[in-house]
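Reviewer comment 2.1 asked that we show a complete input and output for one of the modelled complexes. We chose the iron/sulfur cluster case, as it is the one discussed in the main text.
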Amino acid sequence: MTDEERYNEIQLRKYQEHEALCKRCGACCGVLDGDPCEHLRKTPENIYECDLYENRFGLRKTIKGEPVLCVPIRNILDKSWWGRTWCSYFRRLT
Ligand code: SF4
Ligand code: SF4
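Response of the prediction step:
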């Protein structure tokens, strides 16, 4: 294995570990405030998924048509929003 391949493998593992922290509770996408992002979907297993996850960042709309800016979760962990204390990433910081 080359150094580049080893580096890429480590980066992929870190990314997967980071992603695995998420409980898919939907709180960061507005599921608790009654007007979630229109791209949020509830699965039969009662978890939430984004229907454009790979391209999610940017200006989006809620179900009621309100603008919502989708940003990386680390950008909003120091802000106040419904369900922040449920979030695994927030809990890891506190
Ligand atoms: S676009 Fe962003 S805010 Fe909307 S459901 Fe996807 S991850 Fe959540
Ligand atoms: S609030 Fe945190 S744990 Fe819940 S879906 Fe969003 S990032 Fe994942």
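The chain has a mean pLDDT of 95. We note this here for comparison with the apo prediction described in Section 3.2.
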